[in-house]
Amino acid sequence: MSFVNIIFLAGIAAAAIPIVLHLVRNVRARQVPFSTLMFLSPTEDQIVKRRKLQDALLMAIRAAAVCLLALVFARPFFPDTTIPFLSGPERSSHVVLLDNSYSMSSPGLFEAARDETVRLIEESNPGDEFSVVVFSDRPRQLTTFDSERSVHGSAIASQVVSYRTTDFYEPLRLAEEILQDARFENRKVVLVSDYQRSGWSGALENWNLPSGIDFVTVPVGDDERSNHFIDDVRISQQRMRASGARSAALRFDIIPVRANDQSPAMLSVDIEGAGVAEQAIPALDRSRVTVQTSVPSTGTYQGVIRLSSDDLEVDNSHYVTVDVQDKPSILVLGGRNRSRYDDAFFLEKVFDLGDDGLYRFESQARSSITAATLRGHTLAILADISPLTQREVDVVADWVNDGGIVLMSQGASLDVSRYSGILEQLGVGTATGVVNATAEFGDESIVGEVDERHPVFAPLAATGGVILRPEFRRYLRVVPDSSASVIASYDSGDPFLIERKLGAGSVIVHTSTIDNSWNDFPVDELYVPFLYQIAGYAAQSSQRNNQFIVGDAVAFRAVPGAAWRVRTPSGAEYVVGSSQSGLDETGSTSEFFRETDEPGHYLAVNGSRRYPFSVNVDRSESVLTPRDEAEAYAAVASPYVEQDPSISIAGPVQEDDSRQSLWPLLLCIVITLLGLETLVAHRSRGVR
Predict the structure, then answer these.
(1) Into which CATH architecture does domain 228-325 fall?
(2) Does the predicted model carry a pTM greater than 0.90?
(3) Cβ-proximal residues to 444 (8 Å cutoff; 6+ apart), any chain
């Protein structure tokens, strides 16, 4: 027992006051004979003895009341630590971390981990408190500190294995935070896991549990687990001229975890509309296997690549979404009648290569631009066209927002003021006038600086020359908008190529001409590579990513009232993009779908638009090699072996208020004794 205010124990000395008074009152006086009292009858001895007994009882009651009153003010309580000369367990605060990453999905492994966690809690010392955290690459606290075993047991029993990877840093850091609210000084972190080596990230290299927190390792599973899985899938398309169909060649790597795992495996590729292709793999020795299958027409196809079963089933399937497309299409809209050396002439010579070309090429004279005009094309080149109407500008902006790429240039029919208005409406910038380089600078301009990180120039930069050699006699001076980016500029500092991103697409403005009326670029050796880089950039931008990893966020462009509806492999449906906030200048907003917690095929629908995509588990989790238990302990436990007892660990240790509830009981006893003293004293006066 301990006391909050030990100084009040000095009040126990006041218990001597009743004893002193009792002794004073019972001092035997000297007998003096008195003649007038000689004829009175003496008092019986029985009554005298009774009075003496009552005085002793009053003395004891009063002394006890004083002692107990001193104890009340001293506030006695029972501390957590046991009495030194009595054996008994210390109460502790435990945070138990239970691994539910998909490497724990081997038959019976996670069930064994749950049972071991429950056993540790049930066999702990009475009064110990626990908090349970389940984790994969992100932790989730199931229960707060509680000494009731059933609370933790029911929470653990409801847990299942996830499809996510392992990351030990976040749960260990969360455990440290939880222990700051622990009631007991003896604190522990218990890690129940298969201790997969890939889960020990670099963040743990400079991190340890603080001094005063014990780390307990509880490994589960067999160190000799074997596994095979599909590590990589590369999809390419090849046109079949005879039928006009497309074939998809699927490439994938099979990587065994154990080098001595030579068991045969069967590989199957099941693409909807193309049937099932199977191939036997005699040995899992990291072989690259190529499978080719044909589909009847262009479109989007989903399928699955499967390996034969092993102990870890979840990574034996790889889900794919294949966009089988025709050649990317380039549309050229010219402003003048076709002549021998106009813009369309040079572009046709570059792109129109028939069946051997990489792109479909279409050239039209200037006409009204409608949504039907642009539909189905990947890149639209507006070369020396007359000014667009407001309706046509809106059509172009809508098409760009949906993922199209527009390349704009000018020429003989240029009207600077009206062309500047179009650039301003598209958010590119403001045209101030045509620059005659020879007259203003005394010589032709060249391209002086390019953004080598941009996809258009990154491959060209490797050649060393980029496009510095062509000479530009004239160009349009444009002051770019703050939301646009200059990806190439002349040696005068004026922009040569400006890009303005709108929604899922871009507007690219070429400030000179595509033909040779203002420059000699068309006869330069880098003219064709430059245009093919722009076309490739457009083709790449038009292809949406349809392969994701569990936990990835999928981006959508949505407008209020036209939300995307996403259906998961389990059939659950989510609504994405119904928010009115965060709208950009196009009236749309970027929304993210984050419920990609299960592998399989997903389908997003927005009106007539459909966006199928596939989600797979992260293959880094498929390497089941565990980390040695002693090595794991050394990486996490505090580097300080002993803690200075004069230094308290982080976080206040709160005394349980129930252990300080003795003083009200003692006060009740004091009040009872005072009442009893009053009663006994009253009867004592009556006897006298």
Answers:
(1) Sandwich (2.60)
(2) no
(3) 437, 438, 471, 472, 473, 519
